[in-house]
Amino acid sequence: MHKPSHFVQACRRIEGAIEYHTRAGSGSHKTRTKLRRELAFWLTTFHSYNSYPTLPKMRLPWAKWDETHGIDALRLAFALRLKHRHEMSRSKVMANSGCSRSTLSYALDLVNDVGLHLHDVVSDQNDVVEAHDVAHVRHSEVRLEARALQDLLLGAAEGYRVPQGKGFKYAEVYGLRFGGSRGRPGRDDAREQLVHVSRVATQLRAKGTASSVMPNAKSMKTQLDVATQFFPHLEIVGDYHTHPYDSLSELKRCLGLIRSRGRFDYAAISSMDSRFCFSCCAGLT
Whole-model pTM? Predict the structure, then answer.
C-alpha cells in the first residue's frame, strides 16, 4: 500500500467536507452524489472549480488549493489522457507525466466510484491538457532568433517593472510568436516539428494580474491581420506568457519555471491556445 500523496490527502479532506456538508436534510444523498461527481470532473479535467454549479457553494479555500496543488492536478489530467488516448501502462504513464502512483490510483478509483469512465473526463479536459498531449507526441525543436528573444524580454520586463495601477506590484504579460515551422521524420517513425521564431509581439490589451493573464481576442485578430499584410512570409507559431515572482527563491519554491527534459512539466510549457506549435512561459524575479 503506497503512502497517500499530499494531493490525495487534500482531495480526501474535500471528500470529508462533502460528507459533512450533506450529512442530513432532504435530498442530502442526491446532493452528495452530485458533489462527488463534480469533484471527480474537477480533479481530472483541469477546469476551474467555478466551472461547476454546486462545488463552489462549499466554503473551502479553493484559491489556496490551486496554488498548492495546481501543478499536481495538471500532471494528473495529463496522466489520465496518456492512459486513455495512448493506452499506456501505469508505469509508463507515471514516467511520462510525473504523476505519483497514489494520485493516479486515487483518481481512477474516484472516477469509477462516481460512475464515470475515462472517456468522460478526458473528452472534457481543458485545452491546456490537450496541448501538452500534442507537444508530448509531436516532439518540437524550437529555435529563437536574437531579435525574438529581445522582443520577449522587453515585454516581460515592462510587465514586471511597471505596475498597472494602485494595488498591482507587477502583472503577467502575454504575446504571440511569429516565424515558420515544418515537419521532419523523427525516431521510431514519429514526426518531429522544427519551429523557427523570428518575431515576438506582446499583446497590449491582454488582461494580466500578478498570477494570471487573459489574452484579448480582438488584439489577437488585429495582430494576425497586420502580420498577414506586412510580413506574410511569417506565420504564427506560438505564444508566450510570464510568471512574475518577488525573488528567485520564491520562483523555485512555487515551481514557476522548470525546464523539461523528456518528461511533462507544467511550468516548462504552458499552452494558452492549442492551435499553436508551442507555448513558452518565462519566469521573472
Answer: 0.58
